[in-house]
From TrEMBL:
PROSITE patterns: HTH_LUXR_1, HTH_LUXR_2, RESPONSE_REGULATORY. Residues 3-119 form the Response regulatory domain. The modification 4-aspartylphosphate is found at D52. Coiled coil: none annotated. GO terms for molecular function: phosphorelay response regulator activity; transcription cis-regulatory region binding. It comes from the Bacteria. Keywords: DNA-binding, Phosphoprotein, Transcription, Transcription regulation, Two-component regulatory system. GO terms for cellular component: cytosol; protein-DNA complex. This is Two component transcriptional regulator, LuxR family. It comes from Stanieria cyanosphaera (strain ATCC 29371 / PCC 7437). Residues 161-226 form the HTH luxR-type domain. One of its GO terms (biological process) is regulation of DNA-templated transcription.
């Protein structure tokens, strides 16, 4: 079940969105401010975010900006809802990092279509990551570009020596192998029988210990250093 985070200070609209999305089979978490959404974000990662722009304390633009500055928030689909319809305002929303922008009042049917389209795009991105991993293993060399990052990596199968032991705890190492196979936090949680919060904690520790910033860099690190297969 896909999880959607709704952020809007309008209590009635927030309630309507939550009810409608749940009726469509989504799991929904709703909050009234960007600050509150950020506070619980790492512990409960959503598959997609729908956020108002005009909110007190922290507006939607700042919420999106801070979200995109975090490795775990860079690729999450993000839709803005706003009463402001002028072109400059919409452009600003996209420049900050939003994937789509709807002007209030909007048709719920249109929002649902946009949500489905963005979730499908995320699925295709995940599939492409898995496909690239398979190519990295099966080819002598790879020169691909994905998500704006060029991957030009020699096949680690050509190396005769075994890679150095990872500087990770056993639990972190199990998560490491799952991540480089392209599994999402939710899938890892189900496969290893641990909570998504625990998965994210381990992943954050892994990124820090290996001095990489995000999943894509972690995959590159794994294949550059010969960690393409779990020998255990």
């Amino acid at each position: 079940m896909k999880k959607i985070l709704v952020v809007d200070d309008d209590h009635i609209l927030r309630k309507v969105l939550k009810h409608t999305l749940e009726q469509q089979g989504y799991q929904v978490k709703a909050t009234g401010s960007g600050a509150e959404a950020l506070a619980g974000f790492q512990n409960d990662l959503p598959d997609l975010i729908v956020s108002d722009v005009s909110m007190p304390t922290m507006d939607g633009f700042e919420f999106c900006r801070q979200l995109r500055s975090q490795p775990s928030g860079q690729l999450i689909p993000f839709i803005f809802l706003s009463a402001k319809s002028d072109l400059d305002h919409r452009i600003q929303g996209h420049q900050i990092g939003a994937d789509d922008y709807l002007t209030k009042p909007f048709e719920m049917k249109e929002l649902l279509v946009k949500i489905e389209a963005l979730l499908e795009r995320s699925r295709r991105i995940h599939s492409e990551i898995v496909h690239l991993l398979q190519q990295l293993v099966n080819s002598q060399s790879v020169n691909h570009s994905f998500a704006g990052i060029n991957l030009n990596i020699a096949n680690p199968n050509a190396k005769e020596s075994k890679p150095e032991p990872l500087p990770l705890t056993p639990a972190e190492e199990r998560v490491f192998w799952e991540v480089i196979q392209g599994f999402t936090n939710k899938q890892i949680s189900e496969r290893l029988f641990i909570s998504p919060r625990t998965v994210q904690t381990h992943l954050s520790n892994i990124l820090n210990k290996l001095n990489v910033e995000n999943r894509t860099q972690l995959v590159r690190f794994a294949y550059e250093h010969g960690y393409e297969k779990n020998e255990n």
